[in-house]
Amino acid sequence: MSDSQTVSTAVAKLYDTYPFPPEPLLDEPPPGYNWRWNWLAAYNFCTGQKPQKQDIRILDAGCGTGVGTEYLVHLNPHASVVGIDLSTGALQVAKERCQRSGANRVEFHHLSLYDVAQLPGEFDLINCVGVLHHLGDPIRGIQALAKKLAPGGLMHIFVYGELGRWEIQLMQKAIALIQGEKRGDYRDGVQVGRQIFASLPEKNRIVKREKERWSLENQRDECFADMYVHPQEIDYNIDTLFELIDASGLEFIGFSNPGFWQLERLLGKAPELMVRAGELSARQRYRLIELLDPEVAHYEFFLGRLPITKADWSSDEALMTAIAERNPCIDGFPSQCVFNYDYQIIHLSAAELKFLQACEGKKTVAEILREDVQLDLKQVRSLLNQQLMMLTPS
What we know:
Elements: H1 3-17, H2 39-47, E1 57-61, H3 67-75, E2 80-85, H4 88-101, E3 106-110, E4 123-129, H5 138-146, E5 149-160, H6 166-179, H7 186-199, H8 205-214, H9 221-228, H10 238-248, E6 251-255, H11 264-267, H12 271-277, H13 282-292, E7 298-304, H14 316-320, E8 323-326, E9 337-339, E10 345-347, H15 350-357, E11 360-364, H16 365-369, H17 377-385, E12 389-392
Parallel strand pairs: 1-2, 1-4, 2-3, 4-5
Antiparallel strand pairs: 5-7, 6-7, 8-11, 8-12, 9-10
Helix pairs in contact: 5-10, 6-7, 6-8, 7-9
């Protein structure tokens, strides 16, 4: 058995023992949204415009118990969805989850990421969350997925970051040391880990970090096992992350939390340093940000297969003649106080609310502004930049 096969077998055993994620099964669609799983919102984020088609194919690569898969089906009513995973136990839960909530446009396959070529056709959106860092050969894994991405398609990826998981790494190694020959007995690993946490002093750094960040979710053994007794984990930094991205052959579109990656929030009070940092490459600036704010427990980002057309709304004519539509991932609308696509509170003026109410995908910006909406183009662009609306070239 090859090293990759050995790792895959161990990982499958973990998730057969502790199917993950352990979210409850519902007899209705899951609540809320994750905009990264909504094709309209994700495509708009990546390109600045609404996609031309919605009858797309989506692959959930490493779907686990189907939590993300279920959202992908319900948030994309015109899409067909395929989920693959190594764990038969997790797949059984995924099938029941989707059946109970009415997510019926999905098929599941017991399949490794390495073997994704066995699936027919290409996919417009590939979702790969929390999977690549558990492979024995992540580069081989991302290359296999990249070959299944259709031209103009998007890939959404989530992998672990080493700086924000330093204490987790220490605890993983401590549990493994104590387990010794019993390593691979995941129930024993959870028991050992819980005993360690119960014994350590309250002010211990590992204990403090657990209480600050992870303890609520780790009350469930499935989460504790996934975090502390996983048989395979590769944690990234910016340098190694872009080695992975470059190996995919795909285009890096951007992080899905762009606010974190703005150097101004860290060095904005030192204009001379900002000028000097401006001489760095984009990747060097990313590295500088994570070194100065080492809270990065994961990276979440989009890749794309060319050709990908990004909209340019800088000219007034292009903006005025575009058809306007609200972002589908807004909560609390219609109200002057709403949650945006990232669940941040946004306060709208009366005029902004009136404008967004008219953004139903039928009228151009110019037509809406002629309907006694007291907004100028600068304010319209602000709504656009906040991802509250999507535009389609007329």
